[in-house]
Amino acid sequence: MTMTIRALLGATALVGTAGAALADGHATTLTIATVNNGDMIRMQGYTDQFTEETGHQVEWVTLEENVLRQRVTTDITTNGGQFDIMTIGMYEAPIWGANGWLVPLDDLSDEYDVDDILPAMAGGLSHDGTLYAAPFYGESSMIMYRTDLIEAAGVEMPDSPTWEQVRDAAAAMTDRDAEQYGICLRGKAGWGEGGAFITAMANSFGARVFDENWDPQLDSPEWAETVNFFKDMMDAYGPPGYATNGFNENLNLFQQGKCGMWIDATVAASFVTNPDDSQVADSVGFALAPNTGLGKNANWLWAWALGIPAGTQKADAAKEFIEWATSKEYIELVAENEGWANVPPGARQSLYDNPDYQSVPFAQMTLDSILSADPNNPTVEPVPYVGVQFAAIPEWAGMWSQVSQELSAAYAGQQSVEEALEKAQAIAVEEMEAAGY
């Protein structure tokens, strides 16, 4: 472990800065806002080593995904100054960077090797070629399924299934008396929770949020087909209360053996295959997110990344932490202590070139999923926006948070799908007209 730590700190140029920080009194306390996902929790367990070498203390503010988005957005738009580093993603980074709200990461050290970041990740976290957040991990979405239940049901899961095949498999694996549900999916309100899932799903059904003139399309037949398919399948084969389930709720259900199939973030693969946490770790298979034969899979593209708000007085120390936490050497540190299956995935090409990581069962499917998501051409028909499970415009977060609330209400049986989509269309039209589109 000592050799790994030495390599980690040397390669990210922290050894030299550490002594200087301690000697001249510039050691400081960094306040970092992050999401309560497993990889971020794991990172917190290693930060004592960062403190030991640099003198910089780290205070964590760990929040549920929807709350994190609200807190960091409020803080950066009001120049609140609560945080020195924020965990943000591909939606926020280019927009906030363009507004001058984030410190450019254009002077990271040579040892850090910024060119090793996967182009899809670097591009999504940049504006006009300038990187504004460094990816801690990158993800797409894919199917995680119970190989034992699939076999027992006498059905097969292709590497690239259709939605009909997914629905049939869910039906075959469902046993409600045994609390065994064929499929678990996000229904939870929030633009990055259930809102992200249904948008990626809609892409595969030929739907689009806006046409080429920026006119909302939520009252289209394709959207109705998408949401009705989702609701009918989940009502029949999903767990009770799915309208309030997001990433962490479905993760828990899958790990407890209550889901035959789960379509969600590729990063979850390490959690569902970890025998310390998952009761079904030895019987999980992987497949691409479903399609309808129209040429688009229902997978998204995302990175949870670390960015520095422009208002901080601790930018230099913040960059030290970002180089440490998103480096090749941090990946090696986690691999040495917890195994290659548990390293933060999807951010660096060198990880996928590593023979040790290539032997991880879900490594290739994760990379295939990431590479199949095209934020510049996310839909079957042309659209004017960039983004797979979101449109990269400032209005999106507020608008889609409202839309997702209407959809979740439909999932819960509080209104019909048609009523939800009618309201969603009205919300989108009002937002876009107010924004001057």
Structure description:
The chain is α+β, with helices and mostly antiparallel strands. It folds into two domains: 2-139 and 301-358, Periplasmic binding protein-like II (D-Maltodextrin-Binding Protein, domain 2); 141-300 and 382-435, D-Maltodextrin-Binding Protein, domain 2. 45% of the residues lie in helices and 11% in strands. It contains 20 helices and ten strands. It has helices at 2-11, 14-24, 38-44, 47-54, 65-77, 92-98, 119-124, 147-153, 163-173, 194-204, 221-237, 247-255, 269-272, 315-325, 328-338, 349-353, 355-358, 363-372, 396-411, 417-435, and strands at 29-35, 57-63, 85-88, 126-127, 130-131, 134-139, 141-146, 261-265, 284-288, 302-307. The strands form three sheets. It has a five-stranded mixed β-sheet with strand order 2-1-3-10-6. Strand 4 and strand 5 form a beta hairpin. It is globular and about 60 Å long. Residues 1-25 have low confidence and may be disordered.
